[in-house]
Write the structure tokens for this entry.
Amino acid sequence: MNMKTTSRGTGGSQLSGAEMLDALSCEQRKTWFASLSDEEAEAIVHDWEFWARPQQLEPTDRPWVNWLVMAGRGFGKTRMGSEQVRKWVKKFPIVNLIGATAADVRDVMVQGIGAGSAIMEVCRRDERPVYEKSNRRLVWPNGASSLLFSAEEPDRLRGPQHMKVWADELAAWKYPDEAWEQFEFGLRLGTNPQVVVTTTPKPTKLIKELVANPATFITRGSTYDNKLNLAKNFFDSIIRKYEGTRLGRQELMAELLEDHPGALWTLKAIDADRVRQCPAFLTRVVVGVDPAVTSGDDSAEWGMVVVGMGPNPNGQVWPPHFYVMDDLSGKFSPNEAAKRAVHGYRAHKVDRIVAEVNNGGDLVEAVLRTVDPNFAYKAVRASRGKLTRAEPIAALYEQHRVHHVGAFGVLEDQICDYIPLVSKSPDRMDALVWALTELSGDDGDQEVIYEYSEEHSISPDLDAIDRLPYWKM
């Protein structure tokens, strides 16, 4: 009974050998296991062709330079990348890795976090590489090496050459065009240089270019394809949250969605004005804060976006242009959020924190000042609706006066999916709007509650904080 998966086409089985084995009766499985020698049983644990579904195996239908794996959450993209590297290093001495951040390279691609899909987790003990962290490389037992790169540092890709490359989560790269361009110049060693790209699909300029490239082989897959290997509670919670939504079509079904009709922002317009760095001199920098009003797994995020104002990219000082410099947003406890906001204030040499206090009132400032009592602060409350606040900011984008310094995937997803009078106004978008409203001076729809300079300090009412369950640390 052969459990190997050999079909890559639509006519054969789309199950892995392991999934076919699982479909047998208990007696049939016992018979199959009894037929294996000890060596065969041990070998099968690390036999990717046994565990992989046919669409997860390297394509052989035609030659390719780019193997673009666009698949939903939980499909097995990371395992595919790791196994492809493991396969390549047996024949090629230089197989390099590029991740969205240095932490992603370390925690997702190389070491893993117990999911069984990173390089160190899929390799047999005798073929496992040595991870030289200080040298940013893996050294394999057969002498092959893998240099490790972060897409946040495109200049480090200038010079190194590659035979094969695994590029992970391309849609989340902060400087996708620059990083891809630099590494592509070095993809020239050997007779058949290739790259496998594993990513959740987003309609970025680079991904659309790869899709249109005749040298690209595209593998698509959904979260549902790997249902048998996913924890039931994970699968049920993700499906319940996203199924039937536009985000679900992207994150579960791996659809490459175009810009949303009726949205105030489009990714195409953001891409057109994207820059790699801010001007040397900025006249003002603010942090816009949209606080969460609850603290828990189902709570909204704290929106925190850093925006600067200065000349346009060509150096002309009027009219002023605006630069989205950082997105510090996330799900935090109030104390964690305060530390993050104040850290951003110091790190980016911010002039003022601007926070919405519709729901938190004075407690927003009080929580922030538990971390640092000395910073400039402005508390604002919306006097009109979210659409009224958002439209002037969208107009700044239409005037090509707002530039994202690199890519901010989640923030850009939120603003490009926002449809007035249909969608909820998300947290990161609200923080962005507050920051740009402050800098552009278009504050006719907000009520300034109070404004303090950095010298002002108050003693926070900690008892009041503690009386509200959602502010507990």
Observations:
- DSSP finds 18 helices and 15 strands in the chain.
- The first strand starts at residue 66 and ends at 71.
